[in-house]
Amino acid sequence: MTRLICTANRGFSVYAMEELKRLFAGFSLQFRQLAAGEIFMMEADTGREEALLAIRGREPIFLRHVQPIDKALPIRGNADDLQALSELVRNARLRGEGKTVAVHLRRADGTRYPYSAADTKAVVDAVLAETGSEPAVQSPELILSLYAGEEELYAGWGTPEEQLSDWPGGAIRFQREEGQISRAKFKLLEAERAFKLHLADFRSALDIGAAPGGWTSLLLERGLKVTAVDPAELHASLAGHPRLTYMNKNASEVKFKPASFDLLVCDMSWSPMLMVKLVLELEAALAGGAAAIITVKLMHKKPLQTIRDVIAKLETVFELRKAKQLFHNRDEITIYLVKR
Description:
By secondary structure, this protein is α/β, with parallel strands linked by helices. The protein has 3 domains: about 1-65; about 70-170, VC0802-like (2-Layer Sandwich), CATH 3.30.2130; about 185-340, Rossmann fold, CATH 3.40.50. It has helices at about 15-25, 50-55, 80-90, 95, 115-130, 185-195, 215-220, 270-280, 305-315, and strands spanning about 1-5, 30-35, 40-45, 65-70, 70-75, 100-105, 135, 140-150, 150-160, 205-210, 225-230, 245, 260-265, 285-295, 320-325, 330-340. The strands form 3 sheets. Strands 12-11-10-13-14-16-15 form a 7-stranded mixed sheet, with helices on both faces. It has a 5-stranded mixed sheet with strand order 5-9-8-6-7. Strand 2 (about 30-35) and strand 3 (about 40-45) form a beta hairpin. Helix 3 packs parallel to helix 5. The longest helix has 14 residues, at about 115-130.
């Protein structure tokens, strides 16, 4: 029996559970909510490594983070909790020996566990150093993930790839910059990481539904030439940028020479199928092998069916590389495609 702590964006855990049921069809699964609508425990009658490999192989759209449960410690609400955790890490010394190890702690509302993430990390880092591991904050080789429930402290080891993220709970945080146009920029920054892209590798981008310009600003920062299309105005800070062409029109009204762009991005608050129609009408403007990063608004009660319908239409022209509900998505997902 394998136990995993699974995390989705708030309100979307039911869809992550549905995806996991389909992924592990034929296996016995049980689910228990740990934080309503967001964090849940999955028990599966399959091996730990097999379960993690299956999730990585067909990564669910709505599953943001997964933590194996290698050990559950009773929470006593005093210093005994840190003592027991320290002994657990010492006894597992071979897991992290010679590796860089990050310690991530999340706390449930109402937990009796009395220590903060910083205090816990300070103690565990000292033990890791004793056992031949190198405590790390960024780019760890291994992560010790801890989840303090109401009565138990769940501990699990895994690589960032196995846990689907190198951030606690998959909650990727970016620092807001002075003069930043909008928080939408964070979505594209996260997409770049999640899809293992380097935006600076592209040459010329088409941003449809660009206003006020959060995605356009990031693409310009990465050195691309950008054509931004929107009937609404772009932020004043973008005016006159030498690599920006702004078209104050609806995207359905514009025409471009064939193969003008090697990247298309779209973050519009449109119905999913209208967005698909617009993207397909513009596909001739994309070079062969061009990438597309598109958000799909989940405006209906059946998001999994909406996603299947959208992807089926887009796959007439594009190859789907990945679909994911990112931490910075709200009632939407982000998809990454490549033109055939």
